[in-house]
Amino acid sequence: MSRKTVFVDSDILVVGGGMGGCGATYESRYWGRDLKIVCVEKANIERSGAVAQGLYAINCYMGMQWNENQPEDHVRYARNDLMGLVREDLGYDIARHVDATVHKFEEWGLPIMKDPKTGKYQREGKWQIMIHGESYKPLVAEAARKAASEVYNRIMVTHLLMDSKRPNRVAGAVGFNVRNGDFYVFRAKAVIVAAGGASHIFKPRAVGEGMGRTWYAPWSSASAYALPILAGAKMTQMENRIVLTRFKDGYGPVGAYFLHLKTYTQNAYGQDYEAFWRDSIEKMVGDYVNHHPVPTCLRNHALLEEVKAGRGPIRMVTKEAFKDPHKETIGWENFLGMTIGQAVVWASQNIDPKEINPELTTSEPYVMGSHATCSGAWASGPEDYAPAEYQWGYNRMMTVEGLFGAGDTIGGTAHKFSSGSFTEGRIAAKAAVKYVMERSNDRPEVSEKEYEQLRAVVYQPLENYRIGRNEIVAGTVSPSYILPLHGLQRLEKIMDEYVVGISSHYTTNEPLLTRGLELLAMLKEDLSCLGAPDLHQLQRAWELQHRVLASECVTQHTLFRQETRWPGYYYRADHPRLDDKDWHCFTLSRYDRQTGRWEMEKAPVYHIID
Ligand SMILES: Cc1cc2nc3c(=O)[nH]c(=O)nc-3n(C[C@H](O)[C@H](O)[C@H](O)COP(=O)(O)OP(=O)(O)OC[C@H]3O[C@@H](n4cnc5c(N)ncnc54)[C@H](O)[C@@H]3O)c2cc1C
């Protein structure tokens, strides 16, 4: 079937209109008054991205105007939580600018809760401020819409385009309209990828009819990683997946409960178990367990060990706090504003937190760069602050010329969350505009051959289905194709069992990882037989492709790092301890799309802040 090809030329192309992408679009206009700025998004920026799940707090705000925290404090906090390994230059860069971003949100109309006595923003915790989050994404999207020359909604970007003469220079992107099927060729002088993190690469706890219920947004489908990986960008810390302790069955967050309602956890026998595990954790990770706050992974570890010891379930003690009607309201509102599903689960399971202490559990792992974890692309740091080894060009430029990133896309910088991701989008955009302006005569060339080849590849699943559907043997089973859902379930099973998630107690070793890579290679082979009955499934097919490539990267990194750096997130049973002597470093990978091979290396961690 012939499909229209739409060509779009721009100076700056922003891929993904979530928090990072909206920040990038907004700031590109500020510095590049006359530039053509295009934002392309697979959903609709009005409500797209992880924050579309609803937020109740902005999790990254220093409060410098009230001398609450300084950027250095945030770097120390993130470094501690990530067991020593963060890009301090990038984290500091976000922390020093994030307050200004939040003040803009308020100017644009975001309702931020205030302490009636002091007039300061209402704190939920040391870094979090409380908001009425319903309008958050539409407000941010409005700023991006007004700044952009054009916003293209409903276009799924599948590949980046490279310059026809310079193989390491980005030149644009291709994708398709998920509603009418048109093929899009975006040509750009600089590209900023802000396409969100990765859920559904490990088997979720909720399967079958509950399968869409994951903690991280189910539509975060790893494009932030697959697009740069395919373009040859170096990636970092991809082994550093996150596992979250959450309310059971609904993934309701616990932050506000711990921080604001001051609830706490107990084992099935009403005992405090965390202290019990302290000494054994110290044997694994040394002094990191004595740091304050105790790193998130170590708290997970104590919970997991307690359950393995047969003293589960672990419960959040809510009965005391919920006696206070104000706290009870906050507790419910927290879910209604952010995770309505948890309130529904409690209602359906007869759980009234005033009467019953609800169960907690650990989630399947997720891969992302903006939450309490730092997987993503290896980026150049700020000129005034980054060590020489972390600078090879423009701030937030990856190791591919002209390719920038923000939010979940960029690695090494945990704890940026929504406000930090928007801020990082702004930082990346400022640098990308500078990059474009300093090269006014540099017009990357896109070869017709390349995008025509990609066009055939992109629509192949529709073709596979069209031809193969007559051979269906039963239901959805066909000898000629696999459906995206089948491929996804196969991926989740491999990752769960070999690269390790919930059903293997997050524990792997070299033989398991090696076998996992073999199985992933077989899955990749079969992806050429993906069949898509319609455009919706074509999108699912490309989301799966992106998830599989990101998963392969995660597996390579997990194999490379021969230690257990983050017990509670995952364990290398063959290297069960933290090893600062050999592994106080970043892991880097680079994928060669011609050969399909991965190169791995270490990069030093520089501690800039004491
Ligand atoms: C359940 C949950 C709770 C959270 N709670 C908080 C909180 O309380 N406070 C807080 O500050 N932060 C919170 N966060 C974190 C915050 O949402 C993220 O840090 C932030 O959204 C990351 O920004 P991003 O731009 O990297 O990704 P996103 O905001 O997810 O944006 C990515 C965008 O890219 C688009 N996209 C993806 N693939 C493609 C493609 N191939 N082509 C085109 N477009 C594509 C997506 O549709 C999306 O719009 C939470 C996140 C979740 C999931």
In a nutshell, what does this entry contain?
It contains 16 helices and 19 strands.
Task: Compile the SSE list and pairings.
Blueprint: E1 5-15, H1 19-31, E2 37-40, E3 57-58, H2 71-81, H3 88-107, E4 129-130, H4 136-147, E5 150-152, E6 155-162, E7 170-177, E8 183-193, H5 223-230, E9 235-236, E10 245-247, H6 255-259, E11 264-266, H7 278-285, H8 296-308, E12 314-317, H9 325-338, H10 340-348, E13 359-362, E14 376-377, E15 403-405, H11 417-437, H12 448-468, H13 484-500, E16 507-508, H14 510-526, H15 535-560, E17 571-572, H16 580-583, E18 585-592, E19 597-604
Parallel strand pairs: 1-2, 1-8, 2-5, 8-15, 16-17
Antiparallel strand pairs: 3-4, 6-7, 7-8, 9-14, 9-18, 10-13, 11-12, 12-13, 18-19
Helix pairs in contact: 1-4, 1-11, 2-3, 3-11, 5-15, 9-10, 12-15, 13-14, 13-15, 14-15
The structure holds flavin-adenine dinucleotide (FAD).
Flavin-adenine dinucleotide (FAD) binds at residues 15-21, 40-43, 48-51, 53, 55-59, 156-157, 194-196, 215-217, 219-221, 223, 370-371, 407-408, 417-419, 421.
Please write the CATH class name of the domain at 448-601. Mainly Alpha
The CATH homologous superfamily of the domain at 448-601 is called Fumarate reductase/succinate dehydrogenase flavoprotein-like, C-terminal domain
Bound molecules: flavin-adenine dinucleotide
Percent helix range? 25-40%
Your description of this structure?
The chain is α/β, with parallel strands linked by helices. Among the domains are: 245-362, Flavocytochrome C3, Chain A, domain 1 (Alpha-Beta Complex), CATH 3.90.700; 448-601, Methane Monooxygenase Hydroxylase, Chain G, domain 1 (Up-down Bundle). The protein has 16 helices and 19 strands. The chain has helices at residues 19-31, 71-81, 88-107, 136-147, 223-230, 255-259, 278-285, 296-308, 325-338, 340-348, 417-437, 448-468, 484-500, 510-526, 535-560, 580-583; strands spanning 5-15, 37-40, 57-58, 129-130, 150-152, 155-162, 170-177, 183-193, 235-236, 245-247, 264-266, 314-317, 359-362, 376-377, 403-405, 507-508, 571-572, 585-592, 597-604. Strands 1, 2, 5, 6, 7, 8 and 15 form a 7-stranded mixed sheet that branches. Helix 12 crosses helix 15 and helix 13 packs parallel to helix 15. The chain is globular and about 65 Å long. Residues 15-21, 40-43, 48-51, 53, 55-59, 156-157, 194-196, 215-217, 219-221, 223, 370-371, 407-408, 417-419, 421 line the site of flavin-adenine dinucleotide (FAD).
